[in-house]
Amino acid sequence: MKKFFKNWWEVIVFAAIMIILRVFFISPIVVDGHSMDPTLINGERMIMVRHLSINRFDIVVSEEPGQPGKNIIKRVIGMPGDTITFDNDQLIINGKKYDEPYLLEYQTQWAKDRLQETYSFNSYFQEIAKTANAFTQLEDRTATFTIEVPDGHYFLMGDDRLISKDSRDPSVGPVPASDIRGEAKIAFWPLNRIRLF
């Protein structure tokens, strides 16, 4: 440590850099809930980075509509101006089909046993999965639907599509760009799940 900080001013500069990063560029966040399972798990701790450009399929942190000060973590599916269609779990954006490999584990389990074993910790989740018509559906179980994303907005969805409250819900809807706080980039806790997104 003494070799690293040769002079007292190095300590001050290092501390100032850390404070500036914390205040303006990065924030710690905690995953709350199961809507991003299995990509992110409840209680997982992450670093959110502000001021990054948002791209399709990024995982972002947004203010929850109608809940000032409460954040949600979701995946960007639709960019401003996109037309998004889901047709029995096939994602189509602006007429082009897209694979969603981050859904594969839970889609496989849903096809196998309707996620009954996976959701064994929550009987309400089990009931939703039992009666679902597709892994990605609307609240009324419609498996084929189209959404127009307004300019200046993003269409966000959780990876656990059966239980995620996201932009499919009219109370959430497409999220204004101004509500997006940053991008979830680094998972650092628990230690066995450290990774970069």
Alpha-beta content class: alpha+beta
Q: Segments where pLDDT lies below 50 for 5+ residues?
A: none
Report the CATH superfamily.
Answer: Umud Fragment, subunit A
Number of helices: 3
Shape: globular
Strand element count: 12
Care to describe what's here?
- This protein is an alpha+beta fold and 197 residues long.
- Helices cover 19% and strands 30% of the residues.
- It has one domain (8-196): Umud Fragment, subunit A, CATH 2.10.109.10.
- Strands 1, 2, 3, 4, 9, 10, 11 and 12 form an eight-stranded antiparallel sheet that branches. It has a four-stranded antiparallel sheet with strand order 7-6-5-8, with no helix packed on it.
- Strand 5 and strand 6 (90-93) form a beta hairpin.
- The protein is globular, with a radius of gyration of 19 Å.
- The mean pLDDT is 89.
How would you describe this structure in keywords?
Umud Fragment, subunit A, 3 helices, alpha+beta, single chain, 197 residues, eight-stranded antiparallel β-sheet
Tell me the layout of helices and strands.
Blueprint: H1 8-25, E1 26-30, E2 45-49, E3 59-63, E4 71-78, E5 83-87, E6 90-93, E7 96-98, H2 104-113, H3 123-131, E8 144-148, E9 153-157, E10 175-176, E11 180-189, E12 195-196
Antiparallel strand pairs: 1-2, 2-11, 3-4, 3-11, 4-9, 5-6, 5-8, 6-7, 9-10, 11-12
